[in-house]
Amino acid sequence: MTGKKSDSHSRRIGRSLNRRILKNTILNILTLVIICGVIMALSLQSLANNILLDSLQPMARQSAKTVEANIHMLADRMMTIAGDPRMNPAAGDDGGAEAAGSDEEKIRASRMEVLTEAAEIYELHTIALYDLKGRLIQGIDGAPESLEESFFALLQETDNLTTSSSTIFQEKLGIMMGMPVKEEGETILYVAGVYKYDTLNDVISGINLGRHGKACMTNREGIITGHTDQSLVLAGSTLSQLSGGNEEAISRVTTGETGAVEFPVDGEDMLVAFSPVRGTQWSLVIQIPKSDYNHFINGAMLVAILSTLAVLVISILVVLRLARSISRPVKGVTDRMISLSDGDLHTEVAQVSTGDELEVLTQTLDATVGSVNRYISDIQQVLTQIAGGNLQVWPQVDYKGDFTLIQSSLHTIIRSLNDTILGFRAAASRLADMSEELSGQSGQLHQASMEQNLSAEALVQEVSNVKERLSSVAESSGQTRAKTEEIAQCVQEANTRMSTLSGAMDNISANAQEITKIAKDIEDIAFQTSILSINASIEAARVGEAGKGFAVVADEVKQLASRSAEAAQNATNMVSSTRTIIQNGVELTADTAGSLHAISAVSDQINEISDRLVAAVHGQESALTTMEERIETISAIADRNLQNAGGTEQSSGMLAKEAEALQAQVRKFVLKEERDR
């Protein structure tokens, strides 16, 4: 056990306090660093996003204002063209009205001159004049025959400078503007021109943010109207295609809001700012990949992580030095405590003079080892005296603190041993007396067991005789039942034959009744025949001599009918006599059948009585068998009691000897009571 404890302590020593302090400190610092790093990274990301979005929003507004300035410049040119006096000669010449009335061609030429100069000076794709229904009046080459409906409707609605929401003109890019030409405050026609796209393209291309940032313009329908990649504009691309279908951002852009948002496009996070271009139906959108600024964020995070790691290393070194200053004296105390747990009570405790809890710990351990030595020596002395039979011994050392429980326990043990030995002495004396009394009772029990055994054997013999007589009664009852069953069978056969005879008589009675009916019919036929013969005789007498032969025949028929009636009457009488006799036979047969049924019922009762008698005999046999088994069990128990009584008699003698030996052993102890006496 000591070896196993030493191995266990050695394994625990392997995990030194120094390593535990260092490990736990490093884990705590690492956990704190990781948590702070994650929080810092998330905070930097959030802060960077907010800063970028907040800076992009004014950039978008400023860029939109730049576009507005360019649009206003184009608008000023268009207003200059519309306000040119050559557009309306009457407005700049008092005699213009008469000249206009006399020479319409001169007005057209003057206007064409204005349009041509404007196209050359202001870099227009085309410029033309349109009437109040939007139809072409005159213009340079390429002017459309009519204005686009939505643009013309807006131009009529505003009755002022209007910019088309689309930048596609005849498969080319351009900015269409329209301006009403007024005369005395009334619009007389419209001038519409398409500026080249370069003006707008220069502004969009000049917006460079980040390495991959781009700017574009879209109208209220979400169709791209300006982009550095002009093919996208010509293809009619939509803002939904460029923004990955982010409906919230598209809705804010197309409703003319100013703002900035972040959303993913094709798996890449994008920072998007937007602002409306006033005076148009356009909004400027700036789109920058977030990855363009990630290297700044990552650099800041790297610096923070490296700083944190440097602080971590310094903290580990400080903690390691502190852990060593604590673990060395603690290890000395731990080694002494391990040797104490292994039973070493003599090795001195190395003292530490640190002026702190470690010094108190070593002094306390030294005092504890000394106290344990004194207590164990005292306990050894007390136990040695008890082992020698001296129960008058008492602890000699003054136990302190919780160790008083040991002193109290020793007092309790000594008192308990004194009481126990006294009890043993009294018990040994009582045991000797009881063994002597038990020896006498064992002899009496042996004699009673012998008598009980003889009585049980006699009872078994008597039960066997009763079983033999009951077997004879059961055999006789069985023979009686067999004879009764034969009588019942004969009676049953007689009943069957009487039933058959009764059925035959019933059949004869029915046939006799049929014969009586037939005889009655014969009488009726004879009577009819007699009447016919009389009628024949009368007819023969009326005929005279010729009817004599027929009269003879009629007489013979009459005689034959008389004899037939007589024979039928005799048959009826005989059948009546036969029916009477048969009725008497049926009654006798019924009486005989009743007697046979009564005999059968008596036979059944005899059978039932025989069955009950046999059942009772069998029940008595079962009871006697059970009684015999019980008596045999009693006899076996009596035998065992007889044997046990003999064994008890022997054991009581041995018990008396053991009681004497126990008394001799108990007398060896010196008790406290004897000292007191």
**How many discrete domains?**
2
Order of helices and strands: HHHHHEEHEEEEHEEHHHEEEHHHHH
**How many helix segments?**
15
The largest sheet, given as strand count, sense and whether it forms a barrel, is: 6 strands, antiparallel
Can you describe what's shown?
The chain has 677 residues and is α+β, with helices and mostly antiparallel strands. It has 2 domains: 47-295, Beta-Lactamase (2-Layer Sandwich), CATH 3.30.450.20; 407-666, Methyl-accepting chemotaxis protein (Helix Hairpins, Orthogonal Bundle), CATH 1.10.287. It is built from 15 helices and 11 strands. It has helices at residues 2-14, 17-82, 89-92, 96-102, 104-121, 149-158, 198-205, 230-234, 239-242, 247-254, 291-341, 357-387, 404-543, 548-666, 672-676, and strands at 124-130, 136-139, 162-163, 168-169, 172-183, 186-196, 214-219, 224-227, 259-265, 268-277, 282-289. Strands 1, 2, 3, 4, 5 and 6 form a 6-stranded antiparallel beta sheet that branches. It has a 5-stranded antiparallel beta sheet with strand order 8-7-11-10-9, with helices on both faces. A hairpin with a 2-residue loop joins strand 9 and strand 10 (268-277). The longest helix has 140 residues, at 404-543. The radius of gyration is 73 Å and the shape is flat.
